[in-house]
Design brief:
There is one protein chain. The protein is mainly alpha-helical and 399 residues long. It has a single domain, classed as MFS general substrate transporter like domains (Growth Hormone, Chain: A, Up-down Bundle). Helices cover 82% and strands 0% of the residues. It contains 18 helices and no strands. It is globular.
């Protein structure tokens, strides 16, 4: 019998728990053309494996937050990871695109690790320090989407599309073991009932600061989710890249995200979370604007699009830890519910943008429409950040 720690989890455990969802979301992306061919379906149907996954994650985060506030972080993560493993097996042995999509929806249970790692960070610390801890977690977590598509691309070429799901399955078992052995309960002030938690949503929705932070996160990550929905199609239709080549170019955004989280972990405590959010949005906006100018100049090299995606990663790495910390600090006693609700809004918006991106891409239009969609998303994020800064100035002034 394996005994488990009852003390707060090691940061490695939180990193692996948080990384499972992004790995499941990203590792198979180079295989989308192969999945389309295998199931004899359209690229739009295959792309639903991204948007439906995001939609399911958005809905599940509404559930995971209240459940963890009621029963604790530990049992919710353990059960969710078991469900995710079942979903991965469904994907591997699917005989039709419909069953494959069902598996992807069930896989979305992996999101418990991501949403609850933020709540655990809030359990252990608060304020800017929570943003620093979240930044360290996401900095380590970013290794999964950074190397996942690269490995997934090579596995696809060597062994077929199912191989990336076998990789995900192995990591899911590893994350489950770590969570079981090391994840001590951190929610020491459990709420009395799930109904009480559901009733807390109106309180959160009435908070102007919550909306400012949540919408900032939604549109900041929206640029990334639009890339998820259209990046593989751009690589295949516009630049004629192989799965492994696309996996290589995907590293640009992941390396940028790692760097952004490193910056966030080092300076957020000094400059504050609002300034970090705004700075991150500016980095993304400048990078996308530069990409649009290069594409419009007539450049046909993949770097004209994928190279500048690096700045999307850097900016998101600076913005998202702070927006996540802001969300869970609006009502500290409702950290799980706040994290889940904000995550639901974030991924729901991401699902919509990924669908829009998938339908606007063609070999004739090139990468320009996707770059424009991403730029519009980050401009909306900047407006939301300016709004929350305005609200906090009003609060300090007693208005």
């Amino acid at each position: 019998m394996i005994l488990y720690n009852k003390t707060p989890p090691h940061i490695i455990t939180l990193v692996c728990a948080a990384a499972l969802g992004p790995l499941a979301m990203n590792v198979f992306l180079p295989s989308l053309p192969g999945i389309t061919t295998y199931f004899k379906t359209t690229s739009a149907n295959a792309q639903l494996s991204v948007s439906l996954y995001l939609t399911a994650v958005a809905l599940l985060q509404l559930v995971f937050g209240p459940l963890s506030d009621k029963f604790g972080r530990r049992p919710v993560i353990l059960i969710a990871f078991c469900i995710m493993i079942i979903g991965t097996l469904i994907c591997i042995f699917a005989t039709s695109i419909e069953w494959f999509l069902v598996g992807r929806i069930v896989q979305a249970a992996s999101s418990a690790g991501l949403v609850l790692s933020r709540a655990i960070a809030r359990d252990l610390t608060k304020g800017a320090n929570a943003a620093v801890l979240i930044a360290y977690i996401t900095m380590g977590m970013s290794l999964a989407p950074m190397i996942g598509p690269v490995i997934g691309g090579y596995l696809d070429e060597l062994y077929g599309w199912q191989s990336s799901f076998y990789l995900t399955l192995g990591f899911a078992f590893f994350a489950l073991f770590l969570a079981y052995a090391d994840l001590g309960e951190t929610n020491l002030h459990k709420q009395n009932s799930i109904k009480q938690q559901i009733n807390a949503y109106p309180e959160l929705l009435r908070s102007r600061r919550f909306w400012g932070y949540a919408v900032t996160a939604m549109f900041s990550s929206g640029a990334f989710f639009a890339f998820l929905g259209g990046g593989s199609l751009i690589a295949n239709r516009v630049y004629d890249l192989s799965p492994s080549q696309y996996g290589f170019y995907f590293m640009f955004i992941s390396i940028g995200y790692l760097l952004g989280n490193l910056i966030s972990s080092r300076i957020t405590a000094r400059v504050g979370i609002n300034q970090m959010m705004l700075s991150g949005n500016i980095v993304v906006g400048l990078g996308l604007a530069a990409s649009i100018l290069v594409i419009m100049s007539g450049s046909t090299h993949p770097f004209s699009f994928f190279g500048f995606i690096f700045f999307v990663g850097v900016g998101n790495g600076m913005t998202l830890p702070s927006s996540s910390a802001g969300v869970v600090n609006v009502r500290p006693t409702l950290a799980g519910s706040a994290s889940g609700l904000a995550g639901s809004l974030q991924l729901g918006g991401g699902a919509i943008l990924s669908v829009i991106a998938g339908y606007t891409i063609s070999s004739e239009n090139g990468a320009l429409p996707l770059a424009v969609i991403m730029l519009i998303s980050i401009l909306c994020a900047s407006l939301a950040t300016l709004y929350v800064m305005h609200v906090e100035r009003q609060i300090k002034a007693g208005i």
